Amino acid sequence: MTFASSLHSVIFLRMSDTPASLASLAAADPRRPNAVSPFKPPAAASANDDYYSFFSLILGMLGLFMKQKWAAWAAVYCCLFSFANMRSDGDVKQLLTGVTFAVMSVVLLYLQPVADAN
């Protein structure tokens, strides 16, 4: 007896033993075919939703390099707003870079030495 013939006899025996059990399973099937709906993937969010993090980075650089206090404070505001609206899967590196530039621009603008009037 070969493997294929023994496999065929096992399948035949199983199929011949199950018509009554299949009918009872079909009657007790709790699934509702009319409630089946096709899978629709969720809409992907665009990666450019967090503009405030980008603005905090740009304004922080502007305040740091051009010594503009309004830009430094605007960068602090933008990074706080970006942190408040950040998603759980948001880009933490960009947020930390913006916070670093914003805080360092405010600190360096207010802690710079005062030039003598003489």
TrEMBL record:
It comes from the Eukaryota. Keywords: Membrane, Transmembrane, Transmembrane helix. One of its GO terms (biological process) is protein insertion into ER membrane. The chain crosses the membrane at residues 52-83, 95-115. It holds the Pfam family ASTER. The lineage of its organism: Eukaryota, Filasterea, Capsaspora. GO terms for cellular component: endoplasmic reticulum membrane. Its main location: membrane. Belongs to the Asterix family. The keyword Cell inner membrane does not apply. This is Protein Asterix. One of its GO terms (molecular function) is protein folding chaperone. It is found in: Membrane. InterPro entries: ASTER.
